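Let us practice reading a record.
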Amino acid sequence: MATYTNSSLVAYKKLSPNHSGQRTHAIDRISPHCIVGQCTAEGLGDWFAKSSTQASSNYGIDKDGRVGMYVEEKNRSWCTSSNANDQRAITIECASDTTHPYAMRDAVYQTLIKLCVDICKRYGKKKLLWFADKTKSLNYTPASDEMVITVHRWFANKSCPGDWLYSRLGDLAAKVTAQLGGSGTGSTAGTATPATGTNKNFPEGPFTVTVLIDDLNIRKSAGIGDNLTGKYTGKGVFTITEVRNGWGKLKSGAGWIYLENASYVSIGKQVSPQKEEAKTEEPKEEVKTASGLQATEFKNLSEAEAVKKIGPLATADQKKSGILASITAAQFILESGYGKSELAQNANNCFGMKKSLSGNTWAGSSWDGKSIYTKKTQEQNTDGSYVTITADFRKYPCVEDSIADHSAYLLGAMNGKAQRYAGLKGCTDYKKAAQLIKDGGYATSLTYVQNLCSIIERWNLTQYDVKEEAAAPAPAKEETKTETPATLTDGWYRVRLAWDNPGSQKGAFKVFENARVCVEQNPGYSVFDDNGNVVYPIRTSNVPYKVRVKIDDLNIRTGAGVNHKTTGEYTKKGVFTIVEEARGPVDSKGTVGLWGRLKSGAGWICLAFSAYTEKA
């Protein structure tokens, strides 16, 4: 039986319950990840300590380069969405920025090198290999003195470990191998330049480059921005006629491509301007020409930027289908990884819609009945285990068609003579709607409902739900509450962020109870009478008072709003005293809500969400 040890570099240890027990395969892989956050070792440990997280890693490297251990090396962590990979890989989460390209601090990268050296030494490895190719890596049988790098994006619809680290994996392999005393660079990616991860020196133009990946974006100008052409180069040899800030202009006139990432492009030799190329430089289109949004537009967006595009699309669909926009948006985000999944990028399929769904056909389908994209996918069994299958998925000309077909399916799919998702149309409770979708058999994941609701609450997706205004339902039975208007008017109850911000208005209601319900669905909003007075919620300035925190990880911030830094501490569940109130942004979209300053002096907490806090 294999002998397993743990790293002596560990500075903090908090073991997670999220693992599968002892490995069934010897360790011969290392899988580095990006955390998507500049966290501490303790913060990551607290996150992995929750059984509801359903994830873990063997190690984590925090923002200051400290190593935390969360799953002992003898045990299989839950990290790469692949049982087979996790059984043989040491998984390492690394603190990173929260937006593309998910850059890491130098202290993190240097510690990653040290940790990889330490792991390799303890298991008798002399080389750390990086092939920059999924098929080759997963089919390669390492020699007894070799370790192979694998990445999360090969097993799931994720960008992990982020382009910043991905472009440096050749450099990581080379530096680790050098410190181990092994021969070679450690990288076998086949680039024409040294495997340092970055191309810096370019020949005087024109010169050739070899594109190593299928989906290198062509842009209208030299730089990242809203300038995608919607086309890729494909793999092959191309001629560059001009270089500007690391970007190269294609001879064909199709646009510009990024040259500095050595994992994407290898630099060739200078060519004579008259010399003909071996390959016609006509980039392939991602999808057939069509009006509408292409999923490629999501590729370089941050999560927050993607949500701003997805939300209005879901709102437009709700007006046609009657399915809550928050549910549609959450499914879009979950199924497509914010529009960045392989299926979304290559087929505009943002919901994982297969060619055939339980033998169903339905009215109003926007699919042409023949365009497909074939890929491998994982499905979860009832016992929690996973199985990998190869399936045909629908391919659409645009994202809007994907959304429309998804909604048409939910409304028209049958289970025998009964509607599979009966009750979904017109449902105004996103939690109930999510359960209806799961109960109808839409997804095999055991945590599907929880995942949808978490996304809705994280991004406040209910703001995109279509709200009924004047034609409101009959008021609910009056209750003996103190939080009702002191004086009811004959006018309208308007729901806004602020009276002087009419553009934020969610609705105007004749019945107060309907306005109150609208506010409850939109944290940070208030009900105003015709004179601009706040009539709900009525908040007194009589501080101090006590609040009960319902969750374990409510952030404490240095000021009233998400625009203020976190202190790195959480409140945990319990009762706390508020000594000052203030209003400030509660999400990345600028939605304003109530914040409270803690009596202890630790900082401010958000009081805008009933799911997080309540009056004690």
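A brief commentary: Confidence is low (pLDDT under 50) at residues 189-196, 274-290, 469-489.
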